[in-house]
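Title: Comparing notes on inverse folding

I've been comparing how different people in this forum approach sequence design from structure. To keep things fair, I'm posting one structure and asking everyone to reply with a full sequence. Here's the target:
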């Protein structure tokens, strides 16, 4: 199994209500605008060495533009590209210079559901800082969750082609398996795959400094009238806290902290029954998992499948 991927870099969103989205992410959500051009903005997390963790692009249709992962060096980028080509994966670009902030060396390709994935190395590190006590802004991007109509097929594709490993699974007696938590490091998951009616973004998650900061941030969003979907609570799989909100265009975004770090040599994946309330929320403080929560998490069908973003 290849292990070319090192970490999650950024998630790029296309949005019709660009100004409102930019105001949300750079304002109450707590990201820092670092670069912009006409209809394109790059936002960083203050505690992260990544040049940016969210990119917003003005577009007529809402879509997930791409998900970007890091690789250790150009050799790994080239090796992955050659392997994907040999396996018949459709490349959008060949490895070469990356022109977004921080530069680097990378390429793009479609996953099995038609999402654009980018892998890059040698991106210049951003000057970042230690997040202080009670400072309730994102430290870094934590993970991304993607909806797929064929859960096992998509899981197998990510395992075979990108070296993801299964950490845990959520299941229920009535629905069967509904979510796979996938890792590329000792972090419990950098990505999860959720069973959905269509290909779409489930949610994007941001790590806060600690429990206090996570609660301060959750409270700030609630007081500002941001639409809360679910939380605050603590999941069993991954052991992380959760507060899910909607951004202005209906994408689900999460504040989290204390995501589990695994010993990969001894770890064995669990199958958790999410119909048990303590599985979805160990604390019992969150509103119950409901059809409304699930419906918002399904999001709108993604208009970007097998259609590469223009930038």
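Reply #1:
Here's my take.
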């Amino acid at each position: 199994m290849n292990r070319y991927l090192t970490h999650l870099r950024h998630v790029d969103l296309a949005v019709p209500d660009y100004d409102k989205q930019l105001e949300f992410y750079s304002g109450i959500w707590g990201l820092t605008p670092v670069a912009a051009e006409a209809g394109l903005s790059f936002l960083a997390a203050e505690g992260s060495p990544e040049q940016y963790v969210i990119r917003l692009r003005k577009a007529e249709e809402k879509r997930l533009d791409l998900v970007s992962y890091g690789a250790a060096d150009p050799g790994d980028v080239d090796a992955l590209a050659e392997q994907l080509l040999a396996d018949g994966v459709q490349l959008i670009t060949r490895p070469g210079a990356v022109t977004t902030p921080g530069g680097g060396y990378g390429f793009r390709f479609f996953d099995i559901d038609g999402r654009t994935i980018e892998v890059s190395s040698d991106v210049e590190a951003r000057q970042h800082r230690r997040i202080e006590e009670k400072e309730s802004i994102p430290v870094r991007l934590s993970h991304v969750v993607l909806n797929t109509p064929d859960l096992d097929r998509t899981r197998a594709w990510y395992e075979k082609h990108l070296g993801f490993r299964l950490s845990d699974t959520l299941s229920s007696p009535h629905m069967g398996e509904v979510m796979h938590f996938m890792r590329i490091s000792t972090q419990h998951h950098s990505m999860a795959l959720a069973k959905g009616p269509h290909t779409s973004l489930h949610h994007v998650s941001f790590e806060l400094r600690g429990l206090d900061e996570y609660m301060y941030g959750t409270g700030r969003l609630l007081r500002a009238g941001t639409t809360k979907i679910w939380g605050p609570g603590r999941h069993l799989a991954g052991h992380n806290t959760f507060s899910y909100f909607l951004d202005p265009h209906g994408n689900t975004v999460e504040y989290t902290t204390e995501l589990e770090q695994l010993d990969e040599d001894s770890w064995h994946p669990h199958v958790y029954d999410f119909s048990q309330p303590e599985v979805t929320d160990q604390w019992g403080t969150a509103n119950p998992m409901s059809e409304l929560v699930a419906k918002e998490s399904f999001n709108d069908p993604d208009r970007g499948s097998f259609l590469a973003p223009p930038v």
